[in-house]
Amino acid sequence: MKIIENVNLKKYNSFGIDVSAKYFVEINNENEIEALANSEVFLNNRHYVISGGSNVLFLKDYSGLIIKINIKSIKILEDNDEFAMLSVGAGENWHEFVEYCTNYGYYGLENLALIPGSVGSAPVQNIGAYSVEQKDYLHSLHGYNLANHNFNVLYNAECNFGYRDSIFKHILKNKFIITNVVYKLNKKFSPNLNYKELKEKFSNRPNTTANEVFDAIIEIRKSKLPDPNKIGNAGSFFKNPVISNDKYLVLKEKFPEISGYVGEDGVKLSAAFLIEKCGLKGMKYSMNNSARVYENHSLILVNYNNASGEDIYNLSVEVINAVHDKFGITLEREVNIVR
Ligand SMILES: Cc1cc2nc3c(=O)[nH]c(=O)nc-3n(C[C@H](O)[C@H](O)[C@H](O)COP(=O)(O)OP(=O)(O)OC[C@H]3O[C@@H](n4cnc5c(N)ncnc54)[C@H](O)[C@@H]3O)c2cc1C
């Protein structure tokens, strides 16, 4: 474990924001976490944990210690006719893990292909796409509690998973370093084709394979989402808002074209639709027009060139205000803001 000073973070965040960290350390195993937690630099500075950096927005140079988790390993804990339990190091690349599972016959995560980032961050915002969330297959996870300096196991029910939400965004925020995640996956493949485009694509194909679904997801995502290697972004910048049924009916009267998905907690609206209706799709912001609402998908804010973190953040404020003024709904940011 080597703590280094004044490290540029541009390549460590998918927005490509050009900021630096006062201290930076990469963690490759559990022993290094314990050593770090007892180090002078850790004890005397604030800290922030990152993995792939695809869901963070740095507003300025970070004045403390950035801890990057690189713990690698995939262990098969159990493998029978029904299911398999796999323990995966937090630093494994999420997409590569999904590909591994699909190829080796461990099913369930196919719809989550091509989501950037690492396995250890997947539980933090309970990543989800195309009608699947990682919580549907998470058995438990292991990690180091920086508050009480202990390694703990948390089972699925203890993680308080919700829509893009978990305990790691609340009472354990920045306090718990996830080191391994255990997924319980199916050995028999049963495709989840609830998402409209998938249903249409596979409607006449009773023997759809996991590899076909995996490939279809990649194709759909590549056609819609900006590649962070080419255009800086962090995927959806805002959560889709959930409102009460009464509020939905009032809005529907005023804006008949609005549509919502009725769930357990209320009616979920498309934030992209709301932003688009405010005329903000493609909106350019900042001195050099680098910070923008992506022209192909209004839920995504992009850094076309050299926007600062503040530019992207200020653009998000403009979007939140515009949506609030028109619809009376306050959008919540999905991306983690690091000050
Ligand atoms: C093009 C694009 C598309 C995307 N599509 C989706 C999508 O479809 N669905 C979806 O849900 N998300 C999506 N995202 C968001 C992002 O990929 C996920 O949130 C992902 O899980 C972030 O992983 P990361 O390793 O990059 O996390 P980071 O950005 O490094 O960190 C994210 C958060 O997790 C915390 N964290 C990171 N590692 C650990 C750890 N080991 N222990 C504890 N806390 C940790 C950080 O402190 C931070 O709060 C997309 C992003 C992009 C750029």
Report on this structure:
The chain is α+β, with helices and mostly antiparallel strands and 339 residues long. The protein has 3 domains: 4-69, Uridine Diphospho-n-acetylenolpyruvylglucosamine Reductase, domain 2, CATH 3.30.43; 74-224, Uridine Diphospho-n-acetylenolpyruvylglucosamine Reductase, domain 3 (2-Layer Sandwich); 232-338, Alpha-Beta Complex (Uridine Diphospho-n-acetylenolpyruvylglucosamine Reductase, domain 1), CATH 3.90.78.10. 24% of the residues lie in helices and 28% in strands. The chain contains 8 helices and 20 strands. The strands form 6 sheets. A 5-stranded antiparallel β-sheet has the order 6-7-12-10-11. Strands 1-2-5-3 form a 4-stranded mixed β-sheet. β18 and β19 form a beta hairpin. The longest helix is centred in the C-terminal third of the chain and has 19 residues, at 309-327. It is globular. The model has no long low-confidence stretch (mean pLDDT 96). Flavin-adenine dinucleotide is lined by residues 14, 49-56, 69, 90, 115-118, 120-122, 124-125, 127-129, 168, 176-178, 225, 228, 233-235, 336.
Task: Summarize the helices and strands and which ones pair or pack.
Elements: E1 4-8, E2 20-27, H1 30-37, H2 40-44, E3 47-50, E4 56-58, E5 62-69, E6 74-79, E7 83-89, H3 94-104, E8 128-129, E9 132-133, E10 138-145, E11 150-155, E12 176-186, H4 196-202, H5 210-224, E13 232-236, E14 242-243, H6 245-254, E15 260-262, E16 267-269, H7 271-277, E17 284-285, E18 291-293, E19 300-303, H8 309-327, E20 336-338
Parallel strand pairs: 2-5, 3-5, 4-20
Antiparallel strand pairs: 1-2, 6-7, 7-12, 8-9, 10-11, 10-12, 13-19, 14-16, 15-16, 17-18, 18-19
The chain binds flavin-adenine dinucleotide.
Residues 14, 49-56, 69, 90, 115-118, 120-122, 124-125, 127-129, 168, 176-178, 225, 228, 233-235, 336 line the site of flavin-adenine dinucleotide.
